[in-house]
């Protein structure tokens, strides 16, 4: 019986990895075509992209976002609707390739999670078994992008809750097995996830004072999380006043993002490649602070303006800018420690995922002494606003859901 379930979880992860690899290759193909546009040409390219996104959503339906996924896991027994996938796939491909500040983690999780639901239905699963299958597929989607099976599995479970992260502990082993299978398939197709994603200067933990520094950077990241959530809610309120079809909203968002990208080119795209520029170039502290603020605005406008994608990697980019700026302003601070700890804290403050954030960043940056990252992540988590950005994290699922 155990071997049957392990095989099933592995097969789900394999299919999810295949889809993620195909999605990534198509995304890269479109992105390389659109990267040739820059400066003034963005003023028409990105609004047109926004119009396309809006029309896709208008005709194919609203694919929702991460809060909807959390609600479905809590209150619909883990059942994710596959009928939203065409809209999510098309809208997110255009959103990300055109330069929106949102990454592919949200669409990957939506599509792979709904596949898990489909498999569960075919096997006539009910209750926790069905929910676990959906969660296993969600974890496979996270893992494909981040290349960290354990971190991806934990993230799929941890993001569901505001405080209690082990409520769905039954799904932990399915999520890990599915994640491992997805990781192998995705890495084979794309050659991503084997080596570190970002190459930071080397760091060795040799001084107990570094833990104090990690806590300070954790506080900095938490403050940045508060600022980002404030910006996000302000932008959401502004766009909510637009009582016009969704394609008007997405077109206006595209125009704003184009103007911002013309002024600060590194705010364009979700930061997967742009973060290396922050790490390796000698930018000034003032520019980095301006870039961090601009990136927070870009993320907020992208998501609240109706473009589709996730904000985990964009938040990492923001944290790297802030951490490096502080390391420049305060001589003697280790810039690698500053950047990675601030990256961890801002993401933990916004997404409420301190454990998986630690695991993900340790893998993505090859930062082997991950204890300082954990300290910073916990500071971001405990100092985050009482009401989370993903409001559905506050809701408590019923026992029979």
Automatic annotation (TrEMBL):
Any one Gene Ontology molecular-function term assigned to this protein's record: chloride transmembrane transporter activity
Keywords assigned: Membrane, Transmembrane, Transmembrane helix
Gene3D superfamilies with a match to the protein in the record: Clc chloride channel
A GO-annotated cellular component: membrane
Localization per record: Membrane
Domain of life: Bacteria
Keyword Aminoacyl-tRNA synthetase: no
Membrane topology field: Multi-pass membrane protein
Main location: membrane
Transmembrane parts of this sequence: 6-30, 42-61, 135-160, 172-194, 214-234, 246-264, 284-304, 311-330, 367-384
Keyword NAD part of the UniProt annotation: no
Protein name (database record): Chloride channel protein
